[in-house]
Amino acid sequence: MTTMEEMRKKTVCQAAAEPPHWETDAEFDCLFRYFAEWEAPGLPLEIGAYYGWGDVVLVAALRARHELLQVPAEKLIALDPCERLGEIEGMKLDHHYTNFANWHEVLVRRGVWDWVLPVVATTEHAFEFLAQLRYRVIFVDGDHMQPSVDIDINLCRAALSPGGVALFHDCRDPARGCTLPAYDVLPAVEKLVEEDEWELLETVDTLRVVRRNPI
Ligand SMILES: C[S@@+](CC[C@H](N)C(=O)[O-])C[C@H]1O[C@@H](n2cnc3c(N)ncnc32)[C@H](O)[C@@H]1O
Predict the structure, then answer these.
(1) Which H or E run includes 45?
(2) Would you tell me which of 71, 88, 92, 141 could form a disulfide with 169, CB atoms 3.0–4.6 Å apart?
């Protein structure tokens, strides 16, 4: 019988070999753990799907959750505008966005299409729809500059269940040795966790795991 740990290690090993993606192996491992095992009411959500390699890991976690923990199967709601929006760090970089055909191709090729509910929109445009639902776990990896970061955090405030977790990617922190240009995610997350309702659970490379405490 395969264990959760074996499934996690196998998934991370496979995902690591599949470019393009931005997550480190340790970040994929952390994402798998929370999507598979974290208990709170609601659905799983990813903001910023890109080519869908994160989806492949997150769906593997949902499958493991279903098969090993006997939790009913649940689809991953995954969001991406699938178009180039503005500039990043002053440069127009084609590898910072994807289109729906690329995303769809990866999900079908890796057999996870049936496990994903794709939403082609920015968080801002889909806010009203997304905020009507409740989430147990949210992977936040969309636009990393303000005002989008504020919109993503507002969605967490509006729709993350008490006891749920939000995992914020690309919290580039010079204090942890990161030499890449700063994004607006880290200061926003640091401010959030100053509030009593929000608590930093762990940091894995540039991934910060934040829990919404029950009031
Ligand atoms: C860093 S990539 C995400 C990587 C992805 N999570 C993975 O695992 O490979 C950022 C993605 O966010 C999307 N994006 C950009 N602006 C967005 C917005 N306002 N709302 C949601 N997604 C956005 C981009 O299209 C891009 O595909």
Answers:
(1) strand 43-47
(2) 141
CA distance 142 to 24: 17
Find residue 198's DSSP bridge partners.
212
In testing the pocket of ligand 1, which one of 24, 28, 30, 97 has its CB within 8 Å of the most ligand atoms? 97
Q: What does pTM read for this prediction? A: 0.95
Identify the structural domains of the chain with CATH numbers, from first to last: 4-212 (3.40.50.150)
Written as six digits, the tokens of 100 are: 């729906």
Please tell me the residue having the least CA distance from ligand 1 atom 4.
Answer: 50
CA neighbor of 79 nearest in space, from 37, 48, 107:
48
How far is Cα 56 from Cα 169, in angstroms, rounded to an integer?
17
Residue whose CA lies nearest to ligand 1 atom number 9: 21
Residue 106 beta carbon below 6 angstroms from any ligand 1 atom: no
Compute the distance between CA of residue 203 and CA of residue 215 in angstroms, rounded to an integer. 23
- Indicate if ligand 1 lies below 6 Å from the C-beta of 97: yes
Shortest-distance atom of ligand 1 to CA 80: 22
Question: 2: which 2 tokens?
Answer: 């395969």
Task: Say if residue 20's pLDDT is above 80.
Answer: no
> Please, what is the average pLDDT of the chain?
92
Run of H or E residues at 199: strand 198-204
- Please tell me the distance from the alpha carbon of residue 209 to that of residue 203, in angstroms, as a whole number: 6
Chain position carrying tokens 């496979």: 14
